Amino acid sequence: MSRKTSVPERFKVKIGGDSGPSYSVRLKGADLWYTAWEDDEIADERKITPSAEQWRSFRRNLDSIGVWDWQESYFNPGVADGTQWSVEIEWEGSRIVSAGDNNYPIAGGLPENDFDITPTFERFLEAVRKLIGGLEFR
After folding, report:
1. Is the pLDDT of residue 4 over 70?
2. Average pLDDT in the 10-14 region?
3. Which domains does the chain have, with CATH numbers?
């Protein structure tokens, strides 16, 4: 098994919508910057420095979820308002750039074509929450 680099080359994830909170986590150097918005105002902003073990665990989660197989877009034209999300991660030759609007991937990267968050996407959200020390990200 190859040894994975402890920090990705690129990492930016966002989730939220017009109503309710929105969240962003982005990599800057070896640190993550977490931002939470409520009613278009920043409610929380902080720097997080995950340990090497947290990064390794996160990478294992990404691999087991199959995010590298996700499609570029998961848009649901039948829903006008709701949750938008985006994922940009580049890590040792693996790269994902994906986004959705009221639609989420299922196992294998196929779209669910429903507005409910899928178990696959919930596993991704949980992996992000673990990486950022349990802060809100939903």
Report:
1. no
2. 98
3. 10-131 (3.30.1560.10)
**42 is written with which tokens?**
């920043």
Provide the residue count of the chain. 138
pLDDT above 90 for 115: no
- pTM score, two decimals? 0.93
The pLDDT of residue 1 = 41
Identify the CA nearest to 123 among candidates 105, 96, 136, 101: 105
Answer for the pair 89, 96: CB distance below 8 angstroms, yes or no.
Answer: yes
Residue type, position 83, single letter: T
41 strand-pairing partners:
38
Mean pLDDT of 69-98: 92
Q: And the tokens for 16?
A: 């939220």
In the block, which residue shows the tokens 């709701």? 82
**Is the Cβ–Cβ distance between 25 and 138 less than 8 Å?**
no
Q: How many other β-carbons are positioned within 10 Å of the β-carbon of residue 69?
A: 13
